[in-house]
Fold this sequence. Notes:
The chain has about 300 residues and is of the alpha+beta class. The chain has twelve helices and nine strands. It folds into two domains: about 5-105, Homeodomain-like (Arc Repressor Mutant, subunit A), CATH 1.10.10.60; about 135-300, Regulatory factor, effector binding domain (Multidrug-efflux Transporter 1 Regulator Bmrr, Chain A), CATH 3.20.80.10. Strands 1, 2, 3, 4, 5, 6, 7, 8 and 9 form a nine-stranded antiparallel β-sheet that branches. The longest helix is centred in the N-terminal third of the chain and has 19 residues, at about 50-70. Keywords: DNA-binding, Transcription, Transcription regulation. This is Helix-turn-helix domain-containing protein.
Amino acid sequence: MYEWNHMVQLMIDWVDNNLTQAPSLLKMSEQLGYSPYYCSRQFNALTGMTLRDYIWNRRISRAALELRDTGERVLDIAVKYGFSSQEAFTRAFVKAFDVTPNAYRKDPRPIRLAIHAEVFSPYHYLMKERDQMRQVHMQPAEIKIETIPAHKFIGIWDITSQNYGDFWNHGHNCDDICGTLESMSNVILSGQLNQTAGWFYQNGQKGYLYGIPVPVDYDGEIPAGMECREIPESEYIVFYHPPFDYLKDNGAVMATVEEVAWDFDPSHMGYAWDEEIKQDYQRHFPEGYGYAVLRPVKKLAQS
Length: 303
C-alpha cells in the first residue's frame, strides 16, 4: 500500500548519503528499477518539491553547518557541495538564509535549515494494523535516575496538543520548526540529545511541548514564534527502552514505556513527583538512543 512512500524514502536517504557526490536521478532510478521520469514524479508528489530543489536545499543546509562547526575555507565548502565558485555559493546562501556565509560564520544565528525529509513513517500513516499483527516480545522498560542540571528550554508549548501527532496537526510547521532548531544544535545543553519533546501541565491541563534544552546562561537569539523558559535542576526517573527498529516496533515500544511511566509509584524508590517542575521530557531517537520518558522527582523526607 505504501510502496512508493518506501521508494521515495530510499531516494531521500540516497541523496543525504551522497550530497558531496552530485546525486544523480539516473543512478537512483536504476537502483529502484523505475524510469527517471516516474521516480521524479513520485518524489514531487510525496515531498511537495522537485528532486533538484530538495538536493539544493539539503546541500546549502549541510554547507551552513560546516561553516558553523568547522574551520574549512568558504571556497572549499562551496566546491565540496557543488558550487562553481565562492561567489555562486554566496548568492545561494543569501537566497536561502538572508545572510552571507562570512557573516554567518562570524555570528551564527537561528536559520531555517532544510531537514531530512520523511515520507515513510508510522507517525504519518498510523500503521497500527502492522503493530497489532506483530507478536513481538518487548523487553520491559528500564528504570533509572538521571540528574539534569538547571537549563533553559527554547521551543513551543501548546496546551491544545496531547502528543506528537496532535502537535504537528495544530498549525505548527514541522519543516520550519525542526529546521530552525537544527541550526541551533551547537548550543544544546551538554550531555543532552538534540530536539526534544514532552508534556507540560497548566491549570490542571496537560499539553505538549517541542524544542531544545540549552545552557542556563544562554543569551542568544530566540527564534520567532518560540519562547525560552528556565527549568531548575532536578532528578528525573527515566523510563527507557534501548534502540529498536522504528518501522517495525515503534508503536509497541512507546506503549510499553509509557504504560510504566504513567502508572509508576516513585515512593518505591524513595521519591515523589516534583510538582514544581511542570514539565516531563520525551526522548525519541529509535535507532541511536531508543525511547524514554523522563519525569522529575524529589527525594522523600526521611522519617
